[in-house]
Amino acid sequence: MKKSLFTLAAFVLAGFATSAQEVEFEEFDLDNGLHVILHQDNTAPVVITSVMYNVGGKDVGGTPDAPRTGFAHFFEHLLFEGSENIERGEFMKIIPANGGTFNANTSQDRTYYYEIFPSNKLELGLWLESERMLHPVIDQVGVDTQNEVVKEEKRQRYDAPYGGILEAIGSNLFKVHPYKDPNIGYMEDLDASTLEEFNQYFKDYYGPNNAVLVVAGDIDINKTKKMVSDYFSEVKRGPEVVRNFPKETPITETIKAQAFDKNIQVPAIIATYRTPGFGTRDAYVLDMISSYLSGGKSSVLYKKLVDEQKQALAVQAVNLGQMDYSVFALFAIPLGEVDLTTLLTEMDEEIAVMQTELISERDYQKLINQFENQFVNSNSSIAGIASSLATYYLLYGDVNLINKEIDIYRSITREEIRDVAKKYLSPNQRVELEYLPQKDEN
Q1: What are residue 268's phi and psi, to 5 degrees?
Q2: pTM of the model
Q3: Nearby residues of 102 by Cβ (< 8 Å), 6 or more positions away
Q4: Which end of the chain is more exposed for a tag (fewer CB within 10 A), N or C?
């Protein structure tokens, strides 16, 4: 009876995920190359205007002789400075004064700006984003101001306990691809950059043909199309972005490395693997593997190392998706006097089991349920839908993944999980990174 109820519940959830998540959208292009996606949902008087640019931390600025890291993240801040028609500092005042909220974020692969307004302020949102794209003011005052803002962000986030882990992973796992450098960049690069270099970076990457505009929420499709055309058609097309990043040599022997953090007292062990970019089927399988290993307190690694054996304060398996290469990482912080090598051995045991045996049907169904729940939640708000539409278009090349991505996860078999674990997660394919407290030199 329990099995029947479990199966019925899974079936009902699957049906709910299929029907509840159907997102309708309309796409078109302006003559200048700006791709536009509209999603109408009149259930609440809210609208989001968002622009995602195909530029991220991997796109360095400067010159070939003097490349500058961190430019995309710097521009995330700089493009709030103002425009020819918006006074300095007013951008971030106009939005809350009109009942809106806003934010922006940058990854290694893209930069995303958005505003959420009452729907009667749609035109204001479109004007603000068109001003950012059409004629922002990029001057020395703004550069100097945002330089200090970025430095403070680095102090708060990257200089916090364990805040340097991603930088340590990148610098050890990648040798030639720009993923080797932190998304926020090196402060000495930003300090050395010239105003001319910043203006050139904007010209190179922030053209309408290197972006997607998403408008979602309480809109009228035809009226919105006209407003989009009115505000964005005059933006001049930018140069075509051509990328030719160097390829990494596969890792065939274990690489051992150390990194030091002055802000921690307890070390950590991290095993990192260079895996395929997030658009590949194997990347989806690795998502499921990471969830199986550490997706919640009932997961394999948490139950073993934290609950049962009391060897770890924290343990996690993460599949960090990126366009060119993803990063799969095993991470653990020891409890008491437990050795880092012991933690790594214990985690490896569970990987070895996955490489030789099929996970149970019950665990497999639990995984499917987890991903269906994530799928429902990811598109449960207008903001989530707008972000998904932009991401699937710009990075995956298929907007309709917003409706059908869950089918990819459902189609993954237990045999694929075993085979992908065996293909990518062996010790000779990784960097073993000891993340250690920095000793006081005095």
Answers
A1: -145, 155
A2: 0.92
A3: 92, 95, 113, 114, 115, 116
A4: C
**26-29 sheet: strands from edge to edge:** 26-29, 35-40, 211-217, 46-53, 111-118, 101-106
Beta bridge partners of 103: 114
pLDDT the model gives residue 206? 98
Contact 55, 205 (CB under 8 A): yes
Six-digit token pair at 394? 């710009």
> Taking the CB of residue 317, how many other CB atoms lie within 10 A of it?
26
What is the H or E stretch that residue 47 is in? strand 46-53
Token code pair at residue 171: 């610098």
Residue 11, class by beta-carbon neighbours within 10 Å (0-12 exposed, 13-18 middle, 19+ buried)?
exposed
Separation CA 127–CA 64 (nearest Å) = 35
**Token pair of 181, please?**
């450098």
Residue 275 token pair: 């895996």
Query: What distance in Å separates the CA atoms of residue 312 and residue 278, rounded to the nearest whole number?
Result: 30
Mark 204-230 as b/e (b = at least 16 C-beta within 10 Å): bbbbbbbbbbbbbbbbeeeebbebbee
CB atoms within 10 A of CB 44: 12
User: CATH class for domain 23-232?
Assistant: alpha beta
Question: Tens digit of pLDDT for each residue in 358-393?
Answer: 999 999 999 999 999 999 998 889 999 999 999 999
Q: Which residues contact 14 (CB under 8 A, 6 or more apart)?
A: 368, 372, 410
d(CA 12, CA 7): 9
Amino acid code (one letter) for 280? T
CATH architecture of the region 255-437: 2-Layer Sandwich (3.30)
**Site of tokens 């996970």:** 359
Task: Report residue 164: phi and psi, to 5°.
Answer: -95, 10
Neighbours of 119 (CB within 10 A): 16
Residue-range domain boundaries for the chain: 23-232, 255-437
Q: How far is CA 270 from CA 184, 257, 313, 332, in A?
A: 21, 10, 14, 7
Half-sphere exposure of 369 (CA within 13 A, CB side): 14
Distance separating alpha carbons of residues 73 and 111, to the nearest angstrom: 8
Q: What is the dihedral sign for C-alpha 63, 64, 66, 70?
A: positive
Q: Is residue 104 within 8 Å of residue 113, measured between CB atoms?
A: yes
Residues 256-268 have pLDDT tens digits of 999 999 999 999 9
Tens digit of each residue's pLDDT (9 = 90 or more) over 109-165: 999 999 999 999 999 999 999 999 999 999 999 999 999 999 998 888 877 899 999
